[in-house]
Amino acid sequence: MSDEAADDRQVALVTGAAGGLGGCIARRLHERGFRVALTDLDAAAAADAAEELDPTGRSAVGLALDVRDKAAFAAVRDRLTERWGAVHVLVNNAGHSKVEVLMEITPESFSGVVDTNLNGTFYGCQVFGEYFAARGYGRIVNIASLAGQNGGTATGAHYAAAKGGVATLTKVFARDLGARGVTVNAISPGPQDLPVVRRTVAPERLAQIEATIPVGRLGRPEFIADMAVLLSSEHADTVTGACWDANGGLHMR
């Protein structure tokens, strides 16, 4: 075990953290005193993002992780426990979105999107849910989506279906793990002001979407990150199985 394991700060693992919303969440956790593992399919980008947070590597590390591979989650868990002694928080953020016409989505495309968004969340919850339960403590935060609640406004059916599944899995794992000190919650953001959104959604379509949002603007990723930090807190022990909406009023319930 590394000498760094003597540090009493909690450890959070964020998937899909090389940039975008995942990078924002990792940054906010780090600012709030967590040691953070930024994982991504792009190992080099994850390492660069971690170095920006802490060039020394003492409180931030970038690691490769393909969320479609359950064994990869276990390998990262083992590397982090060796490095820092334990893991306390998992944020399942990694996602894959495509804008495709409903009747033109191929089986391969559907499976590919579901594999990352839904299967990846399932594997992460399984591996770390079991690990957290054995330790008697853990926080899991799943990033769902408004698309999983309303069928999507600018995303494909495969993405909407997968994110709807994430919300359901959150309840299933929360019920199973609640008595063992582990909370599992979801955050369902609406359209966010992120580079990937502006890159994948045509400007005219984005303007139409903004016009339909009751508050009149895209969401702020920093606020989603603040929600993730709150749900990752030790005192969030009576909040589990919940889906926290942040959609500008597009979906009210």
TrEMBL record:
SMART domains: PKS_KR
Source organism, top-level taxon: Bacteria
Entries under Gene3D superfamilies matching the protein: NAD(P)-binding Rossmann-like Domain
Ranges of residues in domain Ketoreductase: 10-190
Similarity comment text for this entry: Belongs to the short-chain dehydrogenases/reductases (SDR) family.
UniProt-recorded name of the protein: SDR family NAD(P)-dependent oxidoreductase
Organism of this sequence: Streptomyces catenulae
